[in-house]
């Protein structure tokens, strides 16, 4: 098994290399000149050319790629064009809000979606089941920014329960201040994941409930709660965990929008700022960071399958 795990880790490294090359070529071949953006609207052609030379943009594309890959191999993601700070420093400064928002979203989503989907499967065809299916459709249909503004209007402006925007670190301002500012973004970001995971949980658990071993457990007099938790939910866990892993990709895009709506100084806001400014090093570094996180999480989820289904062996 250890050899197979090592092979999957090496495959992950190769995927990261391919992603790095794709990101580099995508940004370099896209329209626009970062040197002109840096120089400003009133710069002369000589000023723009001087900046291009300083940034190495006049070098052949393969030379730029080799230089960048050499820096990347040393853990250097480059230096931001405008702030002149290392990209790793910028990511470190913005990591906490995004990490805590993602963590709260995942926890809230699993706590709500899995029981909701399980109950809908157990009560298939009932009003509860129809409500879950309706919520799933609505969760996929409403854009994140629209839901964010609706929640702000209702909970912040009308009811005045929660603050409108901002972020408070739990390490500096305490847990209560942190929770007050993180509840709205968490609710906004989690709706689509609750809809996705609840729907998948319902389908998986409903399929397992039709199996012979579930009918045997009922014939032996086991309680319905024990059947749902020990037999149905556990055997339906593999597709549910898979969907949770795939949902990380949706979360990356959702974080950018959610942090912009709620003015959270995280990686999502940094992405938006870098794209508008065409700050190549920052964009490249953030895409590689998000890709690395996504690939590692999916690797861990793949390896966790053996915990839920002993029949799976790598």
Output the structural class.
mainly alpha
Total DSSP E strands:
0
- In which range does the helix fraction lie? over 70%
CATH fold node name of the largest domain: MetI-like fold
The major pleated sheet works out as: none
Name of the CATH first level of the largest domain: Mainly Alpha
CATH architecture of the largest domain: Orthogonal Bundle
H/I helix tally: 14
Encode the helix/strand succession as letters: HHHHHHHHHHHHHH
For the CA atoms, what is the radius of gyration? 24 Å
* Mean pLDDT, all residues: 83
Description:
The structure is a single chain. This protein is mostly helical and 314 residues long. It has two domains: 72 residues; 221 residues, MetI-like (MetI-like fold, Orthogonal Bundle). The protein is 79% helix and 0% strand. The longest helix is centred in the first third of the chain and has 36 residues. The protein is globular and about 85 Å long. It starts with a helix and ends in a 6-residue tail after the last helix. 29% of the residues are buried.
């Amino acid at each position: 098994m250890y050899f197979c795990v090592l092979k999957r880790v090496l495959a992950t490294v190769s995927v990261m290399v391919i992603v790095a090359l794709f990101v580099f070529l995508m940004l370099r071949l896209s329209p626009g000149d970062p040197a002109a953006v840096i120089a400003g609207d009133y710069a002369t052609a000589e000023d723009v050319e001087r900046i291009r030379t300083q940034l190495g943009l006049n070098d052949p594309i393969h030379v730029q790629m080799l230089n960048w890959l050499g820096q990347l191999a040393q853990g250097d993601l480059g230096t931001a064009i405008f702030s002149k700070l290392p990209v790793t420093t910028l990511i470190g400064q913005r990591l906490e809000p995004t990490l805590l928002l993602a963590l709260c979203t995942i926890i809230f989503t699993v706590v709500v979606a899995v029981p909701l989907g399980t109950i809908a499967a157990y009560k298939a065809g009932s009003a509860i089941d129809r409500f879950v299916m309706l919520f799933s459709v609505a969760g996929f249909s409403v854009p994140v920014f629209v839901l964010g503004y609706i929640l702000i209007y209702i909970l912040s402006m009308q009811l005045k329960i929660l603050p409108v925007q901002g972020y408070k670190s739990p390490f500096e301002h305490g847990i209560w201040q942190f929770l007050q500012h993180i509840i709205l973004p968490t609710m906004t970001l989690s709706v689509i994941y609750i809809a996705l995971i609840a729907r998948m949980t319902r389908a998986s658990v409903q399929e397992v409930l039709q199996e012979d071993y579930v009918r045997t457990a009922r014939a032996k007099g086991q309680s319905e709660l024990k059947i749902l938790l020990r037999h149905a939910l556990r055997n339906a866990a593999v597709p549910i965990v898979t969907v949770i892993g795939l949902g990380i990709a949706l979360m990356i895009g959702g974080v950018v929008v959610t942090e912009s709506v709620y003015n959270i100084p995280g990686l999502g806001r940094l992405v938006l700022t870098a794209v508008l400014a065409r700050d190549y090093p920052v964009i490249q570094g953030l895409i590689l960071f998000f890709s690395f996180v996504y690939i590692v999480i999916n690797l861990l989820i793949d390896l966790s399958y053996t915990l839920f289904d002993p029949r799976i062996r790598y």
